[in-house]
Protein 1
Amino acid sequence: EIVMTQSPATLSVSPGDRATLSCRASQSVSSNLAWYQQKPGQAPRLLIYDASTRATGIPARFSGSGSGTEFTLTISSLQSEDFAVYYCQQYNHWPRTFGQGTKVEIK
Amino acid sequence: QVQLVQSGAEVKMPGASVKVSCKASGYTFTSYGISWVRQAPGQGLEWMGWISPYFGDTNYAQKFQGRVTMTTDTSTSTAYMDMRSLTSDDTAVYYCARREWFMDYWGQGTLVTVSS
């Protein structure tokens, strides 16, 4: 099973600042990596797939990069609605696996 | 628009079974797989398995093999997740989601509480 490790666990950021979230896979997942955003009491929302492709309706301030084992989600200028938990997920191997999440909180 | 609407919250006794439904609309049901993901209170996301509505193929996480059955009814565009021998560790919100790779649309979640 591929283990996905996200860092940091919590990121404290001021509105308008840039946030950089990391996700590492225990072995290569090629570019088969997705990012999700989850707010309290809501289902996850797909942000990025194929490591760097924004899903439909996702603002351009969200960008993804990386391949193989190292991936990054960048939020260029944090808006109030961006404070949430973010998960990465690999879909190169069965079983699909998620990282443990990074909580982005207001500094 | 694509929608996945799940059945309502359930409270079950330890040892019981639960069946959660997920009704799809807004797309051709047989063209996309359905994945199931759960989230225990205050915890992260856990992939449970996937089913192909077209072929009926399934792939379950090893942790749930033998205890979970995923099915679909193409006549009603509905997917089902059936879990047996429930314990308190199965208390969680259960989500269905479209696709077996990245998951682009999600149901609203179904809270299953296992308690005596």
Protein 2
Amino acid sequence: QKEVEQDPGPLSVPEGAIVSLNCTYSNSAFQYFMWYRQYSRKGPELLMYTYSSGNKEDGRFTAQVDKSSKYISLFIRDSQPSDSATYLCAASNSGYALNFGKGTSLLVTP
Amino acid sequence: GAVVSQHPSRVICKSGTSVKIECRSLDFQATTMFWYRQFPKQSLMLMATSNEGSKATYEQGVEKDKFLINHASLTLSTLTVTSAHPEDSSFYICSAREAVNEKLFFGSGTQLSVL
């Protein structure tokens, strides 16, 4: 079993919709949680970085971590076609080498 | 955010040749850099962890003699794919860990095609 599980999608939503992306993890020692956005054939771009449980908001993006259920989420409000990309969740117990999910492919249609 | 420069972005080479990929942290010092490979529609797979001034730590199943990693300075790490074969064709990505806040920033990746 991979330490971080993520539904690969694809997920298709209309422009303006609220997008919910989710991952589960198995290692209770994980303390650092990240979301990356990756456009095709590009390196991942750090979107959100959280430590331990709780919510973090940055513009249209909200990251949520529930350590009791080992569940991490990314919400995108007012989604735009430019948000179309693959979103990777990642977790780590040290901030060092990350354990990545497979990535969820998101398509926001105009 | 911090910038990590990786090049070349794309390289095509003949089987048996060696290819060097560079990863530079442009505006911060990176004591630790990581190298990943990514196959189509797959997640990033960590290959090795590179610490400045010391030998790289390779993940299980990654041949250290084939994938040579050098981290000679706080801003530069290189990955050399030696005697490349078609099965080495993949997307290689580096990342650098910012010492201050421990965040990881990624290079833009290198698409390697071995003919």
